[in-house]
Design goal:
The complex is a heterodimer of chains A (440) and B (583). Chain A contains 12 helices and 21 strands. Chain A is an alpha/beta fold and 440 residues long. Chain B has 14 helices and 25 strands. The chains are: A alpha/beta (440), B alpha+beta (583). Strand 5 of chain A pairs antiparallel with strand 1 of chain B.
């Protein structure tokens, strides 16, 4: 590995599970090094003592290993050749293809000046009414799925990615099972979309600490296409909880004092640095980066440090739920939220959008109350009964993730259900809209 | 000046070996790869000085040189700050090159070449002390005072002052002679270390004047005062930012400073985009004219995030010493506390609760203590009202930031997940929230004099009704609608009237978003009349529900109707007619 001018060190003074320390001079913070060929990064410098974090673990490293400093931070070669390729956490091809040629860019680059951002205003259509109608996504938004590990979040995400009309989809897989990796690969290639897709994959078979590099790699590629090529880029990050787990492993090995749920005290900043890369640029500057992520929950607990900090950073969150009445997985209309939906609802979509959405959710809530009432043994009124029927159809025809409609169709279907089960005054919608859409 | 050499790097904490004296809190610049990185001294042990760097330390090497500046983190105060967008270190974001923030790029906070129309206030021979007003310039229709240097000791004599005319910020507008006979050139710019409170006032009494925000759940139920303090804790998604934006749009203040501290960049973009279009309801001018934004969003360097709230507070104090009413909002103070935690952790300090530094409580209380209503030395008054949001981890209010803030902030506006889920916005919990100012006799006499005598007793009575309504709702939940007497339903629905008509408010409706004080008084009287009526006669609980639902609907329509419009009076007449009947 060492070239003529690089100095080789061969005396390691300390080895822990994740780090090696040695005496070295002229080393830069964050710089990469190789230790007997294994990639490592400088995490601490104290005088001549340099501590390196070894991504794949320190097992098998001898005290006389060859250490070479590479003089650069983690970086990625960017060019159009990235499209359609699969890479590991270091940005090396894992699909058997040739190495990428292009400009070498350091990952984890600077943030966008907030005054150079544009307010997001372009709708991303997914065909799923639980998203498009109730929790509309907007370019430049960052939003995670909060899901239990057994829920089909990767399937929904792949579907959203393929339906969203974007120029590039960048997949960052962290702690992904090999099966899910193949699922994504097959799904994208079956859809004939491979040329739009770039993947950075760390599977469960790879060392856990390596996955800390994945989001930066994915977002560096995203920034290239958004800024240099003015493209609309969608970044998928799954699963951010595995990423956070790796953060806690590293901070633990560096003897840092853990805060809530054994997570490092810097968790909020660490996650924000990733999610805030989502941006809508003004037209003269570039395209957009939208981030859809997955945060797996443990037993639905959103007070855990990872979903909790994520919720404060992202612009809403989407929940999946199995609706036992219709036997389908739906986007939960109560807890899901897209904070940016008001930027497009009724502005880029039909004017009745917000009112129809709110009325439907209110009636769905009434149905939930009716259900509780009947479970507690109280009698149901006629209105309650109608709400329950409405809720069934609403979940089946709109909230379910297998729905694929355009927003206009979604609104029409909802109006049809309103008419089928309710009286005009029960839906509580402005007259100007009922005049237009309350038709036989 | 002292120089230093880098001897260690751990993330943004750097150790320096120095060759001379350093100040605790002193600013230095470390040179690396052509960039100059600003850093602040946080600990000194022997020859080793620990500094926190305000930027990324990537590539920084042992042996890099550092230059000390001899002063603590300070900002420039002068005309030209209004409508500006700054980062946490007072760099003008609009002056920065490129789309991305470049490391080591610092920009001038003021416009050095702009001419200001200066009018002298003092004349030659006058005796002045620090912070006394020497002259005035107008910025965005706001009269700004040019003051004697804040660092001036004792009394000085005005040796000369320029005539009325156009001057730049760094032009000398006055020469003062101090007690030692030295001449001091005074321009329009003051420098002040952000972490030191400005105490250039004569007296800081307890605040007593109502600060109108146009938000009913605040003004009517738990009012904040000019110079008062309050905080808004709430889990994510409960509407902290919407409420803060509403207050910053509507509050009756001369200057509004918004510190976006470690929050989403898109929220700041919303302010950039909307405020230049929106109109200040009190003056009719554009909101942006009275607003300063300090944007240190969550992806910007952590140490500068900590500085950002201090930068904002120092600006607020500066305007206060000119006799202006300043409203300062920080969203969110939890992110500031987290920045402190990250640094404390890197310094390997023994942690307090939840790994926060042990002095967190002291830091929070000192910061809130800088707000206040003051009598200036010249007898004029000024105020800094401070409202901070808190983002409690896991939505649990028993965490260090919330608990420590509760000890010092006088108003508590607790946002509640349950209310947010039910879309009862603003989701301020009416029972747990409080304003200590309601108990201040000086506040009571102010209200008595400026609004009316009955206001506070009426509010207290409604609060009791809310409490009672909640208790009854719980009973109804257990016993069923038919399991309690009809009167219980009446009591419950009275509390719903208070909730729907006074507390809930549509921040996105043009009319309902802002309720002026006289209109709030009308609503208060109306709701009190509905609640005080005791001779309702209902046969079944369903009659109660129907009656009050109709009543609430009418009152809500009234809230949506322009004040004193025909529609408004028509609806009011309908409400009063309904009140005449007993069922």
């Amino acid at each position: 590995m060492a070239t003529a001018f690089q100095k080789v060190y061969t005396q390691i003074s300390q080895i822990t599970k994740a780090t090696c320390s040695l005496k070295a001079k002229g080393v830069g913070y964050d710089e990469l090094a190789t230790i007997n060929g294994k990639l490592a990064q400088v995490v601490k410098i104290m005088g001549d003592d340099v501590t390196l974090q070894v991504f794949e673990g320190t097992g098998g490293i001898p005290t006389n290993a060859e250490v070479v400093f590479l003089g650069k931070a983690p970086s990625l070669k960017v060019s159009d050749q990235l499209a359609g390729r699969f890479f590991n956490a270091f940005g090396e091809p894992i699909d058997g293809g040739p190495a990428i040629e292009g400009k070498e860019v350091e990952t984890g680059g600077p943030s966008v000046n907030p005054v150079r951002r544009k307010q997001p205003s372009e709708l991303i259509a997914t065909g799923i009414a639980g998203i498009d109608m109730n929790n509309t996504l907007v370019t430049g938004q960052k939003i995670p799925f909060f899901a239990d590990p057994d829920q089909p979040f990767n399937e929904v995400m792949a579907m959203v990615a393929l339906r969203a009309e974007c120029d590039k989809i960048i997949l960052g897989g962290m702690g992904m099972t090999n099966d899910d990796y193949h699922f994504f690969r097959n799904t994208f290639s079956n859809a004939g979309a491979l040329d739009r897709i770039i993947s950075f994959i760390n599977t469960t078979e790879d060392p856990a600490v390596e996955r800390l590099l994945i989001p930066d790699m994915a977002l560096t590629a995203a920034e290239y296409f958004a800024v240099e090529k003015h493209e609309k880029v969608l970044v998928l990050l799954t699963d951010m909880t595995s990423y956070a787990d790796s953060l806690s492993i590293v901070s633990n090995r560096m003897d840092q004092i853990p805060s809530k749920d054994s997570m490092p005290g810097s968790l909020y900043s660490d996650l924000a640095k990733i999610y805030e890369k989502a941006v809508q640029f003004p037209e003269e500057v570039g395209g957009s980066i939208t981030i859809i992520a997955v945060t797996t929950l443990s037993g639905g607990d959103i007070t855990h440090a990872v979903p909790d900090n994520t919720g404060y950073i992202t612009e809403g969150q989407l929940y999946l739920r199995r609706d036992s009445d219709v036997g389908k997985v739906i986007i939960d209309p109560f807890r899901s939220l897209s904070r940016l939906k008001q930027l497009v609802a009724g502005k880029k979509t039909r004017k009745d959008h917000s009112q129809v959405m709110n009325a439907a959710i209110r009636l769905y809530a009434d149905a939930a109350n009716a259900k509780t009432k009947s479970e507690n043994g109280f009698d149901l009124t006629d209105y309650d009964q109608r709400c329950l029927k409405f809720a069934h159809d609403y979940a089946d025809k709109l909230l379910a993730i297998d729905v694929n409609l355009n927003t206009e169709e979604m609104l029409d279907v909802t109006w049809k259900l309103f008419r089928q089960y309710f009286k005009l005054e029960e839906v509580n919608i402005k007259k100007e809209f009922t005049d237009l859409y309350w038709r036989e | 000046m002292t120089k230093g050499t880098v001897s260690g790097v751990v993330s943004n904490m750097v150790t320096l070996r120095v060759d001379g004296p350093v100040l605790q809190g002193e600013i230095c610049y470390i040179t690396t790869g052509g960039d100059r990185l600003m850093a602040e001294v946080i600990k000194v042990t022997g020859q080793d000085v620990y500094v926190q760097v305000f930027e990324s330390t990537r590539g920084l090497k042992v042996g890099a040189q550092a230059e000390f500046t001899g002063h603590m983190l300070e900002i420039q105060l002068g005309p030209g700050m209004l409508s500006k967008n700054y980062d946490g270190l007072q760099n003008d974001l609009n002056k920065m090159d490129g789309v991305f923030l470049k490391r080591g790029q610092y920009t001038e906070p003021l416009d050095n070449d702009k001419l200001w129309h200066f009018k002298p206030i003092v004349k030659t021979g006058d005796r002045v002390r620090q912070s006394d007003w020497l002259g005035e310039v107008e910025e965005n229709h706001q009269p700004l005072k040019i003051m004697a240097p804040f660092q001036l000791e004792g009394t000085a004599t005005v040796k000369s002052i320029v005539a009325e005319g156009e001057y730049k910020v760094h032009d000398v507008v006055a020469v003062l002679t101090d007690e030692q006979g030295n001449d001091i050139n005074v321009d329009m710019v003051q420098h002040w270390p952000v972490k030191v409170a400005m105490t250039n006032y004569k007296q800081k009494p307890r605040p007593f004047k109502l600060l109108e925000t146009g938000v009913r759940t605040i003004d009517t139920f738990n009012p904040i005062t000019e110079g008062g303090t309050g905080f808004i804790p709430g889990p994510f998604g409960t509407g902290k930012t919407v409420l803060q934006h509403a207050i910053s749009k509507q509050a009756e203040a001369d200057i509004v400073i918004i510190a976006a501290c470690g929050e989403r960049a898109n929220e700041v973009v919303e302010i950039f985009t909307e405020f230049p279009e929106l109109v200040d309801p009190h003056t009719g001018r554009k909101l942006m004219e009275r607003t300063i934004i300090i944007a240190n969003t969550s992806n910007m360097p952590v140490a500068a995030r900590e500085a950002s709230v201090y930068t904002a507070m120092t600006m607020a104090e500066y305007y206060r010493s000119m006799g202006l009413r300043v409203l300062l909002m920080a969203d969110s103070t939890s992110r500031w506390a987290q920045a402190l935690r990250e640094m404390s952790n890197r310094m390997e300090e023994l942690p307090g609760p939840d790994a926060f530094p042990m002095d967190l409580g002291a830091l929070i209380s000192n910061f809130y203590g800088r707000a206040g209503y003051v009598y200036l030395n010249n007898g004029q008054v000024g105020s800094v009202t401070f409202l901070g949001t808190v983002s409690p981890a896991g939505g649990n209010l028993k965490e260090p930031v919330t608990e420590n803030t509760k000890k010092v902030a006088r108003c508590f506006y607790g946002l509640e997940q349950d209310r947010a889920d039910k879309k009862r916005y603003p989701a301020v919990n009416p029972i747990d929230s409080y304003s200590k100012y309601l108990e201040y006799p000086e506040f009571a006499s102010y209200i008595k004099e400026h609004i009316n005598d009955g206001w506070i007793p009426k509010v207290q009575k409604l609060k009791t009704r809310m409490q009672r309504g909640k208790e009854i709702a719980e009973q109804i939940n257990i016993l069923g609608d038919d399991g309690v007497p009809t009167e219980y339903h009446v009591t419950f629905w009275k509390s719903e009237v208070i909730d729907f008509v006074i507390l809930q408010q549509d921040a996105f409706d043009e009319v309902d978003a802002v309720t002026p004080l006289d209109r709030q008084e009308e609503i208060l009287n109306l709701v009190t009349a509905i609640c005080d009526k005791e001779d309702y006669e209902f046969d079944t609980f369903q009659d109660v529900v129907d009656y009050f639902k109709k009543m609430i609907n009418l009152c809500k329509q009234m809230n949506y109707a322009p004040y004193k419009s025909d529609q408004y009076y028509e609806l009011k007449a309908q409400v009063e007619a309904m009140l005449q009947s007993n069922n």
